[in-house]
UniProtKB/TrEMBL annotation:
Domain HTH lysR-type: 4-61
Record's keyword terms, sorted: DNA-binding, Transcription, Transcription regulation
Pfam families hit by this protein: HTH_1, LysR_substrate
Protein name: LysR family transcriptional regulator
Alphabetical list of Gene3D superfamilies matching this protein: Periplasmic binding protein-like II, Winged helix-like DNA-binding domain superfamily/Winged helix DNA-binding domain
SUPFAM superfamilies from the UniProt entry: Periplasmic binding protein-like II, Winged helix' DNA-binding domain
PANTHER family: GLYCINE CLEAVAGE SYSTEM TRANSCRIPTIONAL ACTIVATOR (PTHR30537:SF26), HTH-TYPE TRANSCRIPTIONAL REGULATOR (PTHR30537)
InterPro entries: LysR-type_TF_proteobact-type, LysR_HTH_N, LysR_subst-bd, WH-like_DNA-bd_sf, WH_DNA-bd_sf
Annotated family: Belongs to the LysR transcriptional regulatory family.
Length: 290
């Protein structure tokens, strides 16, 4: 059997609970006429009277009283189900994926401020060089990277930055490094799963005539390794701005506004906690040269 309209059932349940068309109309924020029409349509649909008008009041028929009891149980069950769902969604952490370098150098230093303003929201970071799919029940937000070598398209920028090739003073001191080819004899540090060294040299017109010394590691380890002088790396100036200004790191080459980190969310409706985090990210956006 096809069920009657939910609106009609909800209206009749309100009438039964209030014991009055007028009071039910007030509770539903509709007119008395609208309530009366919905009940009449429901009676026509079911083929039986549900309400008897007695003076200025009402009296439920035997069939109406039975339906009212069942609807009370049914709507209560629906309410509990919705409550469990919303409670589960509100308690589920906001899952974010980004590169390890971005996590350590940009996001983590700012997270304390977010958590202080939003103590009820738990963040779960997934730092990885892999391109993690965004899907319901999984990762909610991704911070992706693109550069001028690839089409940018319609994206929401979070950090627009100069990209720099850098090294520690003790590694590059005394070397003549005025051309891209001069860097071939230095050890390179690059993130797992990438080919940054060869791609950077190719972009600058250098075809290596011998194997490069390349150490691959997670991006967060590269940050420490380059500061120790273990090798040179291609990265965002934003991650090393203070080191460069203090002379702890030497900028060898720079690509003006070359890289963009941007926000990506999964399609569909976002949970309130995810919306809050994304709005906070937008407030932190740096779309100027850094």
């Amino acid at each position: 059997m096809k069920l009657p309209s939910l609106n009609g059932l909800r209206t009749f349940s309100a009438v039964a609970g209030a014991g009055s068309f007028t009071l039910a109309a007030e509770r539903l924020n509709v007119t008395h006429a609208a309530v009366s029409q919905q009940v009449r349509l429901l009676e026509d649909r079911l083929g039986t009277p549900l309400v008897n008008r007695v003076g200025r009041g009402i009296e439920l028929t035997e069939e109406g009283a039975a339906l009212a009891r069942d609807l009370e149980i049914g709507f209560a069950t629906i309410g509990r189900g919705v409550e469990r769902l919303t409670d589960g969604l509100s308690n589920r952490p906001v899952q974010i994926t980004m590169s390890p370098a971005f996590a350590v150098e940009w996001l983590l230093p700012r997270m304390a401020a977010f958590q202080q303003a939003n103590p009820d929201i738990t963040l779960m970071l997934n730092p990885t060089a892999d391109l993690v799919e965004l899907k319901p029940g999984g990762v909610d937000v991704a911070i992706r990277y693109r550069d001028k070598r690839r089409p940018v398209g319609d994206i929401e920028p979070l950090l627009l930055s100069d990209m720099v090739l850098i090294g520690a003073p003790e590694l590059v001191a005394g070397r003549k490094l005025s051309h891209a080819a001069d860097l071939m004899d230095l050890p390179w540090l690059q993130e797992l799963g990438t080919n940054e060294a060869a791609e950077w040299l190719t972009y600058h017109g250098v075809v290596p005539d011998r194997p490069l010394v390349v150490h691959q590691m997670p991006g967060n380890l590269i940050m420490s390794a380059v500061r120790r002088g273990d090798g040179i790396t291609f990265t965002s100036r934003a991650f090393f701005q203070k080191d460069i200004e203090a002379g702890r790191i030497i900028e060898l080459f720079s690509e003006k506004l070359f890289g963009v980190y941007y926000i990506e969310t999964r399609p569909g409706v976002l949970r309130p906690a995810v919306k809050t985090f994304v709005n906070w990210l937008r407030s932190q956006a740096e779309v100027v040269t850094v």
